[in-house]
């Protein structure tokens, strides 16, 4: 490990693109001083709803050195999931968030990150580190912002100038000194389309999302009955919601992904309202076998469909 940090950074980024990632950036593994008070306020105001795990490991969320001993760098990768043929999203269609069309992204990205880690060991030698894909207390959007691969928009999603916001984020936290990239400018400007479009008013102010009011929260995280006060506001979303991203002007730059695993199950494209309303355990297991939709289980999906069906517009 005698080459300069810039050399290793260049080689690592090139390998990340070779493995199929769309963007790769690097940040120094420091304490997230800007995010600390924001996270504390967000939790204090109960904006995490029943997502109790968000309140766990507060210190680890803010300091990667508590996750990887001697951590020096955080490598962020982005993987596009924008579909070549979005499923129907007409007013009377039941809707599924684009990220859940295909195979669960946790598996896909983790495999690619393991390959990237193997490359680091081959190319550089003994480097300690861990891969993270939305499954540990890592503030992925904060690290992505610090590494310059995008900025956090007013809807709290990361936006990249070249590809919009339909992508997954993964990290390698390494005890290797790499050359960090700097953050980029926020290009949201005066636009408020995401705030104006959210039917449940979950984006309570620019850059602040009350997670407990979000359609994605109600359809995925909430384990009990969906409250009556949001009836009629779901726009037929039954797993997740893409409204704030669909209206974002930056997503005019979204291009179809190049990852076959993210293509929807062939039967999903043909799903009618009746198919959704009468879905059986057998069909659920087949169509969503390796999908993120499994998180809500069949009962949860049926609850969401029934809620959407019985909502008045």
Task: Describe this protein's structure.
By secondary structure, the chain is α+β, with helices and mostly antiparallel strands. It folds into 2 domains: 5-84 and 99-174, 3-Layer(aba) Sandwich (NADH Oxidase), CATH 3.40.109; 193-309, no CATH class. Helices cover 31% and strands 13% of the residues. The chain has helices at 5-18, 35-44, 58-62, 105-123, 140-146, 193-197, 215-221, 243-246, 273-277, 281-287, 297-309; strands at residues 23-28, 73-80, 95-96, 129-132, 151-152, 158-159, 167-174, 203-205, 208-209, 237-239. The strands form 4 sheets. Strands 1-2-7-4 form a 4-stranded antiparallel beta sheet, with helices on both faces. Strands 3-10 form a two-stranded parallel sheet. The N and C termini lie far apart (63 Å). The model has no long low-confidence stretch (mean pLDDT 93). Cob(II)alamin binds at residues 61, 134, 158, 169, 216, 241-242. Its EC number is 1.17.99.6. Its cofactor is [4Fe-4S] cluster; cob(II)alamin. TRNA binds at residue 223.
């Amino acid at each position: 490990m005698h080459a300069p940090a810039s050399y290793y950074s260049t080689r690592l980024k090139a390998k990340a693109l070779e493995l199929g990632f769309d963007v790769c950036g690097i940040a120094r593994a420091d304490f997230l001083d800007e995010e600390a008070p924001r996270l504390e306020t967000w939790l204090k105001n109960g904006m995490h709803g029943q997502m109790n795990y968000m309140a766990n490991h507060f210190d680890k969320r803010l300091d990667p050195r508590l996750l990887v001993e001697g951590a020096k760098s955080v490598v962020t990768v982005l993987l596009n999931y924008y579909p070549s043929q979005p499923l129907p999203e007409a007013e009377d269609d039941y809707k599924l968030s684009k990220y859940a069309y295909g195979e669960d992204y946790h598996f896909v990205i983790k495999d690619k990150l393991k390959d990237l880690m193997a490359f680091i060991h081959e190319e550089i030698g003994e480097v300690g580190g861990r891969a993270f894909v939305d499954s540990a207390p890592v503030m992925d959007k904060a690290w992505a912002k610090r590494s310059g691969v995008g900025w956090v928009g007013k809807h709290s999603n990361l936006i990249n100038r070249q590809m919009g916001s339909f992508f997954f984020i993964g990290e390698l936290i390494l005890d290797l000194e790499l050359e960090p990239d700097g953050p980029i400018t926020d290009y949201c400007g005066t636009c408020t389309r995401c705030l104006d479009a959210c039917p449940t008013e979950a984006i309570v102010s620019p850059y602040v999302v009350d997670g407990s009011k979000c359609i994605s929260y109600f359809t995925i995280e909430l384990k009990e009955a969906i409250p009556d006060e949001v009836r009629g506001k779901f726009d037929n979303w039954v797993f997740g919601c893409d409204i704030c991203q669909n209206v974002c002007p930056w997503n005019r730059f979204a291009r179809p992904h190049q990852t076959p695993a993210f293509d929807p199950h062939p039967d999903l494209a043909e799903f009618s309202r009746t198919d959704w309303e009468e879905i059986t355990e057998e069909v659920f297991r087949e169509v969503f076998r390796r999908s993120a939709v499994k998180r809500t289980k069949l009962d949860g999906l049926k609850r969401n469909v029934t809620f959407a069906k019985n909502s008045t517009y």
